[in-house]
Amino acid sequence: MKIVVCVKETIDTAASLSLQDGSVFWGDASLIINPWDEFAVETALLLTEEHGGEVVALSAGGGEKNEALKHALAMGCKEAIQLSAPEDMQEKTPVVPSMLAAAVQKIGDVDLVFFGRQSTDEETGLTPPQTARLLNWPALTQTAKVIAHDPQGQTIEVERLFENGRQQAKAALPAVVSVVKEICEPRYPSFMGIRKAARAIIPKWELSDLELSSTVDSAWRSLRLDVPASRTKKVEMISGESAADIAGTLVKRLLEEKVL
Amino acid sequence: MAENILVYLDCFSGEVSPASWEAVGAAQSVKSEAGKINAVLLGPRAQEHADAAFEYGVDEVYCCDDASLGGFSAESYTTQLAALIKVNEPDLILLPGNVRTRDLAAMLAVDTQSCVIPDAVGLDWENAAVVTRPVHGGKFLQKLQAEKAPCIVVLRSRVFTVPERDETRTGTPKTLDLVDAPAAYEVLGFTPVEGEIPLTEASIIVAGGRGVTQPASLNAPDNLESDEEKEAWLAQEGYKIVRKLAETLGGAIGASRAIVDPGYVPYQYQVGQTGKVVSPDLYFALGISGAIQHLAGMQSAKTIVAINKDPEAPIFKHAQFGIVGDVFEIVPKLIEALQER
User: Fold this and answer.
1) What percent of chain B has pLDDT over 90?
2) Which chain B residues are within 8 Å of A94, Cβ to Cβ?
3) Measuring CA to CA, which of A87, B9, B24, B207 is 20 to 30 A from B220?
């Protein structure tokens, strides 16, 4: 059984970011595996530990030393492959799902493709469902629990977390699954894992390796990036003689401001 | 301005989400004078909502309530919508945002080879759709212009205004024929969240953080052996104050990652960058320090009230009203004051 897990290199979510010449500048903040993707790697590893098989990590883009792939290897993935396309293409066109779908097909014999539900930078959450649609595989997004996975019978049964409840669904493999945090607790990479990852030579697949055209119409253009206007009003601190006093003042102020 | 806008009215389990009408409002804001707003309703009992769609100002309503659309799969809904788009040729498609519609929009863009922009907080038209959306946990706003038609835009809920309802407006819905598509997966069941307002739709949210996990007046029962069990018991008892205030206000409950990660509160209530992004009218942050990842999930709330022991907590920089004090002393009095009002 072969499982692919798609990971993305993102900026540490605790980093303080600024704008320089209209682009996001992260200074010396570290690059990390997209936090959601750790849950995808863990879920994939758990399934292979139970049923056998191996996990291949895929990442589109990222730097020369893709931290997401290194982290996935350190956690226990067998293999890692980096997909690359010209940067401006990645930004403006839906080329990433096409690359991932083509790579999954090139790897071949894949039962499951795991994703984190979205990335913490672009935050679109479009890549898992689009990759699934391109592969013509079912998309079990927002999965909070793998209820049953039967590699022989080629089925997977999951519970998905929607805003208003939980859906239980069963799909025939191969399938695409995107996971939410509830699904598991990601392991820390072992010392041996980190050493192995540091030494690994990660193959790079270009668009031509994936038989994809390098001329794709752009879907949108970015007009500008702005820092949102900060709240102009300063916080109004409420104090008083007693808790009852403070609570009374707060309610009065909320009513005056027509918040209640 | 847009000439022909298609609004997807999200009908799940027979109910239309309130954000669907916000999408009609957003459509009206970018429509040319002679332009049309059409709506599509898919799923069981979808037809029942056609009258409301006309009253909110929609010109044509397309419905398909075939039983096979029950349970929702983005795949089958995509096939139905793609067929309608081929005939109807809209220049803009708007969907109210949730995790289901985002999948639908994503797949629809693949099928129609068009462009999709999710999580819009601003919508404009300059020969094509111009969309503003937050990125990097709300640290920046990105403005994008569509370069392919139709442009599919998923709107963040509680941002756009619901239009006036005119009960004299009527119309006759058009029935869509079901396009046959093999089911992508079998829906075995659906467990709704009973008696609770979904966080993303709530106008009032009361959220708790680490500060609600240690009620000073309580001691964990002696039959709990490990410290971990005792901590969890105290945290869950402490969190009850969040529920009580939410009940008093008719609001939804939320939590910061600090109390979700140790398992005190289920993940579905987590507000923040790796939880839910909410924009209620009123947000109570009880014992929440205001880490940058939490702010990413709630900073667009209209009014934020923060109660925290630590006067230096970053949450106070983002709040309109701040109280330095013990949640367990202030909030019971606050509940009393609210009940007296």
Assistant:
1) 87
2) 109-110, 115-116
3) B207
